[in-house]
Amino acid sequence: MHHANHHYGHAHILARYCDIPDPMHPPRIRGYLQHGWNIGDGLAPGTPYVAGTPLLVWSEETRRRSWSQGRRNVTVVGAPFAYLVETAPAVEGPGEGTIFYPFHGWEGQQVHGDHQRLIDEVLETETGPVTACLYWNEYRMRPVRALYEKAGFRVICHGYRGFWWRDSNRDFLVNQLAELRRHRRVVSNRLCSAIWYGLLAGREAAVYGDPMVLDNADMTFGGEPRLHRQWPEVYGRETDFATCHQLARAQLGADELAGPAELRKLLGWPKEGYV
Which domain of life is it from (predicted)? Predict the structure, then answer.
């Protein structure tokens, strides 16, 4: 199984949904499962891909883009987070305050920007308590974390997504859903998975502030300028929830989810046992 299929506990969430007897050790997924929201073909930039390998994407929109890139073995399965929301117990109440996700880098690329400027804008805009959720990359950088702590933010990290099957936080998205539901709003300085997740979880969302710069950003599919052009509805300090919620459902394939038996077949999982 491609190691990215374990990122954020995706394979584990799908295994629980499919009633796998031991969801902590899911069977191998036959193919490559899209591991994050992107505006490309479902593969992360630079991902090695063996022609003909099944590509399992989140949405019909992504399937069409992948088709335009010459890929033919592409199937829409929906985002693992959408399956999690579908099966998690409902939570009453609108939540309180805001959870803020600063745009982040990863092992291979760092982000450059003014965190203090972002902090000032968030404090100027949001009402109630604010939680800053830093990606593990920034969370371990004491100077960055200290800025948010000094500003009075509650600072958290959902954990490490995992890499080459090591150190995966299998409950990454479980923790993220709980935090999103704890808050009334989710905001970020760049359109990202967390914004769509928050909307699907029933929270208001907004994208504003300096989008920052990513080292050696891949602009093949248009980058940040395209995000703003294609999804203007989510930009600004206040947005229309109903409109943005429908956009989130489309981006996460929330209306394309398979039943457990069908999903097992799409993932190449047997009815019983493991492969």
Answer: Bacteria
Chain mean position to CA 199: 12
Q: Which long-range contacts (CB under 8 A, 24 or more apart) does 183-186 make?
A: 183/95, 183/96, 183/97, 183/98, 183/99, 183/131, 184/94, 184/95, 184/96, 184/97, 184/98, 184/128, 185/97, 185/98, 185/99, 185/126, 186/98, 186/99, 186/100, 186/101
**Each residue's pLDDT tens digit, 44-97:** 776 777 888 899 999 999 999 999 988 889 999 999 999 999 999 888 888 999
Amino acid identity of 120?
A: D
Ordered structural domains, the chain, with CATH: 3-87+253-267 (no CATH), 98-251 (3.40.50)
Single-letter residue type at 37: W
Tracing tokens 């073995």 back to the chain, one arrives at: 73
Q: 3-state secondary structure string, 95-122?
A: CCCEEEECCCCECCECEECCHHHHHHHH
Ramachandran category for residue 95: left, alpha or beta (phi over 0 → left; psi -120 to 50 → alpha): left
Helix axes 142-150, 115-125, angle to 10 degrees: 20
Residue position matching structure tokens 């702590």: 149
Burial of 70: CB neighbours in 10 Å, binned 0-12, 13-18, 19+? exposed
